[in-house]
Design goal:
43% strand; 195 residues; seven-stranded antiparallel sheet; mainly beta
């Protein structure tokens, strides 16, 4: 695996105690989850193979080969990386190709604490170097009384040197970590095996 990957991080993942705050230059270990509600199966005759092409923030257009699927979760190889999600596409089986847009995010510990311990689960945890961090600076707008969402007409990202999950954006921050993989071989645990 080569090249930087842009991976999303919601402040609640840090606030839950799963990770500490990150800073530029840190080394960290985590799996990558994806969210892609509109993935579609590729036609069986497609010549496409696993790939990922960056679109914006931490969203990629992906073509993924299904490598693992259960009734509760699945994993895809997207060429440079293997990623997982807890909502398998109906009828998906290992070897199938799927494509569409996918948000990539830091594992909120679903893989580390539960899914990766299941029999037959593929290893998905990699070591990463955090090269850059961006904070979502898109303003909030009220869409109904006491209900807010980001204003999609004013999208803005601001470079920061570190996350401050409890303080940035009043504790509801969203970040993008630009990460370089430091390991070719994934594992099931956060710590590498001792030799």
């Amino acid at each position: 695996m080569t090249g930087a990957v842009r991976i999303g991080l919601a402040s609640w993942i840090i606030q839950d105690g799963n990770y500490g705050d990150f800073k530029r230059g840190d080394e960290a270990a985590f799996a990558v989850e994806f969210y892609a509600p509109d993935l579609k199966a590729c036609h069986p005759d497609t010549t496409r193979g696993p790939s990922m092409t960056w679109q914006r923030d931490c969203t990629y257009t992906i073509t993924g080969r299904v490598t693992h699927v259960t009734s509760e979760w699945w994993a895809l190889n997207v060429g440079a990386l293997e990623i997982y999600n807890e909502s398998p596409l109906a009828g998906a089986k290992p070897g199938d190709l799927v494509s569409g847009e996918a948000y990539l995010g830091v594992d909120p510990f679903f893989y580390f604490e539960r899914l990766g311990r299941e029999r037959g689960a593929p290893p998905l945890i990699h070591d990463w170097r955090i090269d850059a961090i961006e904070l979502d600076a898109t303003p909030w707008r009220e869409v109904s009384p006491r209900s807010f969402e980001r204003d999609s007409t004013k999208v803005a990202w601001k470079p920061v040197s570190h996350t401050r999950a409890w303080k940035d954006d009043s504790g509801r921050a969203a970040y993008v970590l630009e990460c370089t993989p430091m390991s070719e071989t994934p594992r099931w645990t956060l710590s590498p095996a001792k030799s």
